[in-house]
Amino acid sequence: MFKINIRFYISVIASKIVMKLSKTFFKGGSNFPGKVALKLNKSILKTLGKEYKVILITGTNGKTTTTSMVYSMLKDSGKRVITNHTGANMLPGIVACFVENYKFNHSYNGEQYAVIEIDEANVKLVTEFISPEVITITNLFRDQLDRYGEVHTTLLKILEGVEKSPFSTLVLNGDESSLGDIPAPNRKVYYGLNYGLENGDNLDNNADSKFCKKCKNPYTYNFITYNHLGDYKCESCGYKRPDLDYKVDEIKELSREGSMVLINGEELYINQPGVYNIYNSLCAYSIGKVLGLDKNILFDALRKQKSSFGRQEEIKIENKEVKIILVKNPAGYDQALSTVALDSRNINLALMLNDNYADGRDISWIWDVKFEKLSSLDVEKFMISGDRLYDMAVRLKVSGLEEEKFTLCESYDKLLEEIKLCESDVVYILATYTAMINFRKYLHSKNYIEKLW
């Protein structure tokens, strides 16, 4: 026991020193301190996490925003809560989050919560040492196919982690056909929309999960929200969407500022635009209800929710209103474009495409994004940047957009200059993960962003 404690304290101290140096000299360090801790003590998370009620939030899209929402709900409820707010969602980043919040010789008598965004393939690495109070799966879309494979493979990775934690409550997107009838003994809570959005009830050719998970026949739909999400059923074997515990009955208003909806019959304003943020909000609300939080606090938190970094984050560049939106797969990109389309003003678009490991090396997915819808918007200028800017330019050209509006920006200096030169004051930046992170660092160095993380 003595040796174990010594190893634990040495690993925490070493990790904290590395964290301090990383933040001081490199303005970052959200993963490396965790790697140091794990190198010294592979099971450190078992000790770090034992005093917390842990909520794990995973899935393809919406993890960061939903995590931020649940964090706000718990904080507004007067709970002590920590979170990996930088979005470092693999095992080293999660360990670093717990290490950063660990206090020597400090005891806390009340309930403590940890709201943790987690990469799909890392769920099993965390549940090896922690039994979460809640495990949430937001959705499953094609994403980083070179790393995850197809949607079914991603689900299997998550379920490996769920199997290790049979007493965790599962909060699941009921509109996601992959998540119905999960073979696990856990308590299951489902949320979803009782409100169709797309025209008709036929799936798009590029939808991700078109065939029944049980008998492989095609699904039919009472209605579709977007991509393959909706009220699905299989006419062949009878598999269908589960009964929803928490649901949006009506979407009364969609605007560029937010949405007015009815959740279980009660009116709520969500201070984040787009249908995907309605899903994120409903997911966060469902988690809050499972945790027994007061409904009024949940509603109030969603009314005043602020954007997470890179997720519809708003900044000022001189007189320009700039909004940064992370995009990383066809389903999410299409929803980002639909959200941009809610803005009836004259706008400018910057599209940044990288192909680093965290983005996915294979960029063929951009051909499944419906860029053609941009032709109906009042776009003044398209600024194209990132490591694969020429691939993006070709994709936009093929989509029928006006080439004379294209500006190729091979450097961040050029992109910033073009943003400043925009005639209208509204700029949307749609960027893949490393493009978003690196451009934010650049803007931070130019004093346009005060807080890097």
UniProtKB/TrEMBL annotation:
Q: In which pathway does it act?
A: Cell wall biogenesis; peptidoglycan biosynthesis
Domain Mur ligase central residue range list: 57-201
Provide the alphabetized UniProt keywords: ATP-binding, Cell shape, Cell wall biogenesis/degradation, Ligase, Metal-binding, Nucleotide-binding, Peptidoglycan synthesis, Zinc
Which Pfam families does the UniProt record give?
Mur_ligase_M, MurT_C
Which InterPro entries does this one have? Answer: Folylpolyglutamate_synth_CS, Lipid_II_synth_MurT, Mur-like_cat_sf, Mur_ligase_cen, MurT_C
Q: Name one GO molecular function term.
A: ligase activity
Q: Which HAMAP family match?
A: Lipid_II_synth_MurT
Q: What class of enzyme is it?
A: ligase
Native species: Clostridium malenominatum
Name used for this protein in its record: Lipid II isoglutaminyl synthase (glutamine-hydrolyzing) subunit MurT
The Lipid II isoglutaminyl synthase (glutamine-hydrolyzing) subunit MurT C-terminal domain is annotated at: 326-436
Please tell me where Zn(2+) binds in this chain: C212, C215, C234, C237
Positions the record marks as coiled coil are none
Q: How does it assemble?
A: Forms a heterodimer with GatD.
Which reaction is this enzyme known to catalyze? beta-D-GlcNAc-(1->4)-Mur2Ac(oyl-L-Ala-gamma-D-O-P-Glu-L-Lys-D-Ala-D-Ala)-di-trans,octa-cis-undecaprenyl diphosphate + NH4(+) = beta-D-GlcNAc-(1->4)-Mur2Ac(oyl-L-Ala-D-isoglutaminyl-L-Lys-D-Ala-D-Ala)-di-trans,octa-cis-undecaprenyl diphosphate + phosphate + H(+); beta-D-GlcNAc-(1->4)-Mur2Ac(oyl-L-Ala-gamma-D-Glu-L-Lys-D-Ala-D-Ala)-di-trans,octa-cis-undecaprenyl diphosphate + ATP = beta-D-GlcNAc-(1->4)-Mur2Ac(oyl-L-Ala-gamma-D-O-P-Glu-L-Lys-D-Ala-D-Ala)-di-trans,octa-cis-undecaprenyl diphosphate + ADP; beta-D-GlcNAc-(1->4)-Mur2Ac(oyl-L-Ala-gamma-D-Glu-L-Lys-D-Ala-D-Ala)-di-trans,octa-cis-undecaprenyl diphosphate + L-glutamine + ATP + H2O = beta-D-GlcNAc-(1->4)-Mur2Ac(oyl-L-Ala-D-isoglutaminyl-L-Lys-D-Ala-D-Ala)-di-trans,octa-cis-undecaprenyl diphosphate + L-glutamate + ADP + phosphate + H(+)
Q: What does this protein do?
A: The lipid II isoglutaminyl synthase complex catalyzes the formation of alpha-D-isoglutamine in the cell wall lipid II stem peptide. The MurT subunit catalyzes the ATP-dependent amidation of D-glutamate residue of lipid II, converting it to an isoglutamine residue.
Record-annotated active site: D362
State which Enzyme Commission number(s) the record gives.
Answer: 6.3.5.13
**Matching PANTHER family:** LIPID II ISOGLUTAMINYL SYNTHASE (GLUTAMINE-HYDROLYZING) SUBUNIT MURT, MUR LIGASE FAMILY MEMBER
Q: Which family does it belong to?
A: Belongs to the MurCDEF family. MurT subfamily.
